[in-house]
Automatic annotation (TrEMBL):
This is GNAT family N-acetyltransferase. GO terms for molecular function: acyltransferase activity, transferring groups other than amino-acyl groups. InterPro entries: Acyl_CoA_acyltransferase (IPR016181), GNAT_dom (IPR000182). Pfam families: Acetyltransf_1. The keyword Transferase applies.
Length: 164
């Protein structure tokens, strides 16, 4: 029997974060569909009549001054995204790394790069039941943080990112 070799889909060491531009909108929308599919486990979201998950805020990331969309790449390939709201405190609205690229340090490195871009107070929240996200952020947040359980079961971390 001959062994079949498959090309590894696992990334190398390169992790970059870049601001998503208008030309990245379709790519981000496709990644958003994967994210919302994964997230439907927690929020019960259903497909619309066109077979898509709706995310009503996506267009605002190209029109509102207080929102930033970032693409996460590994070895030049898109592997995820982050959506940040520049409020007080700054809020990680959404953060996603595709399943094949998780547990390789990519998400951690990307998240830390994004946090470093926005000095000041931060808030990161995870919905009830998303224990993997809670564990991820507890490791990723680079400073001491306070953690709170909200009435709806959402867990929230608050912390301050200072200048290096």
């Amino acid at each position: 029997m001959t062994a079949i070799r498959r090309r590894s889909r696992l990334p190398g060491v390169s992790v970059t974060v870049e601001i998503a531009t208008e030309s990245d909108r379709t790519l981000l929308d496709r990644l958003m569909q994967l994210y919302l599919y994964d997230f439907s486990e927690f929020d019960g979201r259903e497909l619309d009549d066109e077979g898509r998950y709706e995310y009503i805020w996506l267009d605002a990331y190209w029109t509102d001054d207080d929102r930033r969309a970032y693409l996460i790449r590994s070895d030049g390939r898109p592997v995820g995204f982050a959506l940040v709201r520049l409020t007080d405190p700054v809020e990680m609205a959404e953060f996603f790394v595709m399943r094949p690229f998780r547990s390789h340090g990519i998400g951690r490195r990307a998240a830390q790069q994004i946090l470093a871009l926005h000095v000041g107070d931060w808030r990161i929240s995870e919905v009830k039941g998303n224990d993997a996200a809670v564990g991820f952020w507890r490791v990723v947040i680079p400073v001491a943080f306070s953690e709170h359980m909200l009435a709806d079961g959402t867990r929230e971390q608050r912390f301050r990112v200072a200048l290096p």
